Amino acid sequence: MPDHVKSMVSIEAEMEKDLKGEDPEVRRYMIEEKSSAKAIGWSSIRFHTWARRYHNADLGLCIGEKDKWGKGYGTEVTKLLLVEAFEQLNLHKVGWWTFAENKASIALAKKLGFKEEGRLQEQIFFNNQFHDSVVLGLLKSQYDKRPRS
Ligand SMILES: CC(C)(COP(=O)(O)OP(=O)(O)OC[C@H]1O[C@@H](n2cnc3c(N)ncnc32)[C@H](O)[C@@H]1OP(=O)(O)O)[C@@H](O)C(=O)NCCC(=O)NCCS
Known about the structure:
CATH superfamily: Gcn5-related N-acetyltransferase (GNAT)
Shape: globular
Order of helices and strands: HEEEHEHEEH
Strand order of the largest sheet: 1-2-3-4-6-5
Bound molecules: coenzyme A
Number of strands: 6
Radius of gyration: 16 Å
CATH topology: Aminopeptidase
């Protein structure tokens, strides 16, 4: 296994802990496909914790089964995360990070109102090379003005 890759065992241990709610800095959710009742991925709200009161968080989302991509699940889950972040937790802002070549992730975030805020050069390493990161953000005030469908 390459040195920079986490083992399945360590990821499972991390998930177990997060799903039990033991870490106050992150809320992690399993994504279950309704029709098959199968777990197909996870999502998260990770708070920025440099102040005592949490105002900001980064959203995380991964649909692990590639044959489940492009079916609208990413959109559905992200909308639920935004309801949780802004309507339940009353956060001021949420962030969305991905690598620059991840067209689907960037399109999904922009579709839901996120604005691109910056690009960090050669920030992440995988597939034997460094990749730029793109960071997007959405304010609660912008979310409140979103078009309703
Ligand atoms: C990014 C990801 C969450 C998208 O999930 P998904 O269920 O495929 O997304 P949806 O079907 O809801 O599509 C959302 C939007 O993404 C865009 N999109 C989807 N597939 C795309 C592709 N292959 N190329 C470009 N844009 C694409 C479209 O704009 C689409 O909206 P539309 O169908 O209304 O036009 C999924 O591909 C994934 O889990 N990837 C691996 C992990 C990851 O990249 N996570 C995001 C980083 S935070």
